[in-house]
Every structure is written in C-alpha cells, then in structure tokens.
C-alpha cells in the first residue's frame, strides 16, 4: 500500500536492532484516516471470505482492528489481553508469546465466550517480524475451534522469518507494507 510505505519513509525512525519506530502515526498516536484506508485495503484483499470476528492483540492492534471492522460489516473485534484483570471471568484461552521489541514473554488471554467454535476470523496486527504474537493467536484459534480466514498486517519485516513461515503453513498473509531492509545509520528503508 503506497500510502503506508510513503508514511513509513516520511515519519518512520529506524533504530539499532532492526527496530522500526512508527509511533507518530501507527501505534502510539493514531492516524485514523490511514487506519480507515488500511481497513478498506484489507477488505479488498480478503473479499469473498466469511468474517464473523476480527481478532487482534493489545494494545497496538486494537485501534487498527476497530477501524478495519467498519469495512467488514462492523463485525465484533476481540483482542487478546496481555494482563490479568479482575474483570476477566469465566473460562479463558491462554498462551505465551514473546515480544520482539520489548524482549519479554507475555501470557495472553481471551475469554472463551468471545470465540465460538466454527466462527470465521481475520487476525489483524500492526507488525509481523518473527511471528511470535501471531503464532500465539493461532494457538488460541486452534484451541477455540475457529477458522482463520486470513492474517492482515500493517508492516511486515520481510527480512525476518515470521511472514514466510506463516505463508508456508498455508495462511493467507496480507501485509500492507513489507520492509525488505532498514539501515539505522542512514535511516533508509527499502520495501519489497
């Protein structure tokens, strides 16, 4: 998606350790107009797929998924929580995920009542690098007995193995911007 690539080039900051900082428009301050265009593009890419719910993970995926939902008939958005809460009741799906950027492992939780066996879901998230978060969500989907119709990613780091592995497993992965390389010294970003 050219508009997203242009925005990454304009406002993205490359840091050491293959970190791409896009907090000025994607995952801290939210450009809702851009989110809307991203949602429309995912709806186009997943046209013809049955979508009963959108699944994401807190926190950066929530805004993106909520805006995208308007392009999928306002289906409910369910997000996996990274923290335990007194408000969580009933049975829950749980899995462990490792955050590449934060360098720590989280237990993520989805209340069982929000994913019903046989439902069709699209998973949306802001980044795909190693694939740890998505693999955790896929474990939850498998345990819940839901059908994953596809995975939508805002920014994929194509030089890391997550996207390739998911595609090899047979998932339709639609990344709106695939970063082929980044240079922390020059700030240059190349797209696939």
From TrEMBL:
GO terms for biological process: purine ribonucleoside salvage; xanthine metabolic process; XMP salvage. InterPro entries: PRTase-like (IPR029057), PRTase_dom (IPR000836), Pur/Pyrimidine_PRTase (IPR050118), Xanthine_PRibTrfase (IPR010079). Its EC number is 2.4.2.22. Residues 47-147 form the Phosphoribosyltransferase domain. GO terms for cellular component: cytoplasm. GO terms for molecular function: xanthine phosphoribosyltransferase activity. CDD domains: PRTases_typeI (cd06223). Pfam families: Pribosyltran. It comes from the Bacteria. Xanthine binds at residues 20, 27, 157. Keywords: Cytoplasm, Glycosyltransferase, Purine salvage, Transferase. Pathway: Purine metabolism; XMP biosynthesis via salvage pathway; XMP from xanthine: step 1/1. It is found in: Cytoplasm. It is an enzyme of class 2 (transferase). It catalyses: XMP + diphosphate = xanthine + 5-phospho-alpha-D-ribose 1-diphosphate. 5-phospho-alpha-D-ribose 1-diphosphate binds at residues 129-133. Belongs to the purine/pyrimidine phosphoribosyltransferase family. Xpt subfamily. Converts the preformed base xanthine, a product of nucleic acid breakdown, to xanthosine 5'-monophosphate (XMP), so it can be reused for RNA or DNA synthesis. Homodimer. This is Xanthine phosphoribosyltransferase. It comes from Parolsenella catena. The lineage of its organism: Bacteria, Bacillati, Actinomycetota, Coriobacteriia, Coriobacteriales.
